[in-house]
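User: For documentation purposes, I need each entry recorded in a consistent format: the amino acid sequence on its own, followed directly by the corresponding structure tokens. There are two entries in this batch. Please keep commentary to a minimum and don't merge the entries.

Assistant: Recorded as requested. Entry 1:
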Amino acid sequence: MILLVPSRAAALSLVIVSLVAAGMPARAGTVIILSDLQMSGSPAGQVTQPGWFAQNINKLSGTTSLPLNPTASGSAAGIAAVLVATGNWESRGGTAEGRDPVTGTSFNDVVSDLWVTRTMSFTMAFSGLSTGVTYGVRTWHNDSYNSNQGFAAGGGTVQLSASGATVVSSTSGTVTNLRGSQSNSAFGIASIQFTPTVTNPQITFTRVGGAITALPVNGVEMTATIVPEPATCGMLVMAGVSLAAAARRRLTAAGCSPFWNLARTRKPRGAACAPRAGLWEQAQPRPIRLRRIGARRSEADMQ
């Protein structure tokens, strides 16, 4: 069996990587849902946000419950989400419906069309979530109607709450009537980060204020943030410490002071710690010793 002993540099690198993994957990965001909520029939002026999934419903859908299509990652994880309201969902989009385009932002086509419920709240119900994962949801609430403020009349905020989950952070959104050239900061995006305590938690969106009973929503983005378990981090740290200890033993056996003990009194350096030869000396050819097979024989062989 061949035993590979790591060098000092390898040991130090593994120690650093292990400590970073333990003290600063890696956070990998996976997109679960990325839905641009639109009106069916491809109305003139309605454009899907690049990279997003277009979800279309009729102007009068006749239903209170609408499923959101997950991404490939969401489907593979078995995650599903449904928007549920107490009133039927409707949709608006395109210039024929008086919705002007938005420019100047990173989500122009998301906020130019919408779904709306003529109630002051709706719920996003999940299934298939994992209790060891932190999820994030962001929603936009704008009506770009050009005749008046439309479903955004009176403005107001969108507040979020969760059931069956621990809320990590939450930011209220704003209901806006914006169109034309804008900036990202002009839109109050509602967001929440939560860790489920059950596999089927719910997030409730509630409009507070406003001059009309309606809650528009333009798009839904959902991500999953995976944090390494403490046991995994502990194994990485132990592996790094073990490799560092092995490297120290090698150096001590060779009569060298380990590089992390420079402040201590050093032992005289032995041959094993001598500086390497210069490039010229290394480049000189070494003599080749030729020995004929059988040139040396023991006395026993000669008998």
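Entry 2:
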Amino acid sequence: MRAPVRAPWEWARRPLALPEQDTDGPPCVVHLVRAVNGLDSLRDFIDAMRAHPAGVEHQLVLAMKGFTSASQAAPFIAAAAELEPEIAFFPDSGLDLGLYFAAAARLRRERYCFVNSHTRPVVDGWLAKLDAAFALPEVGMVGASGSWSSFHSWIMYSLGLPSFYRDVLPPIRRARELLLQIDFEQLGVERRSRRDSLESRLRLLAQLPEELLAFPPFPTPHLRNTTFMVSHAVLSNMRLFVVRNKMDTYVLESGSLNITRQVQEMGLRTLVVDCAGDVYEPAEWYRSGTLWQGQQERLLSVDNRTRAYERGDIRRRRVLAGLAWGLHADPRPPFSGVVGKSTAEDSPDARSGEDPSQQLVPQP
């Protein structure tokens, strides 16, 4: 049998194979701790773990990324001592998913709950809820949030070409402005320098063929990599590669061979889990009240992107909800006092006039 033909942008990617599982046991929580984020970030996570117990026996591993000396890491380890974590050091490369793969290769545990550096649990028993969902029949992967967003459809829309988002989002210039505001907030700057703007445009131009051809159109259901649970066996059966940059991460999260789709192609289910432990199949994710929908009132954990929605006005919320859920977007204004499920008249299903499962058919 011939090996599949690889696109030019795949030539530099090195396949990654994980060793076999070594030990059984409770879920292994792998939390990414980046030196560049500072000690306060870890303290925030510790406070959240203290305020919201996991609710099930587990092993906590602090994946220390980018630390150059024992003295630099010492305050971080001391701050987390009460949680009795296992400490593992990793080089400052590979971004989140690359770190998760490296941790799995080293730890070789039965199953993992990966939690990124900016994520915080917000309900008691958060891990127990994920673990219970993971134990359901034929489940291969669960997460605190998912999305239908499409890199391909966004690029097509940005270029003024036919795109699903044309009927969902505001004019491209306004949409870009609103999304840039989020990036500036997270970077702590008011605007981009001319040099950064030029570098960004050149990078996007160089990546354009991959952005158009390696990502499917809306909808592209994928679990987000901020909080998710998966077994070592399932990870080992995926087609993985060494993560070098953000584009590699985007490909693995929402590209044509994203890890969610690979799990589904194994015949396994991929579920979103809300704060009550209720589970949602991909066609129902928009109903979960988690990412960029309503008031996000049923989130199990929060992260930078959910906070960006929470801080945003209704214009920002409409853009984010539209990106994630298309015609089923149901954003609510901040502090509107509207909590819980939408009424039948206000629901995105009623407005779109179609069965939500039909939107999970790739657009032409």
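Summary note for entry 2:
The longest strand covers residues 28-34.
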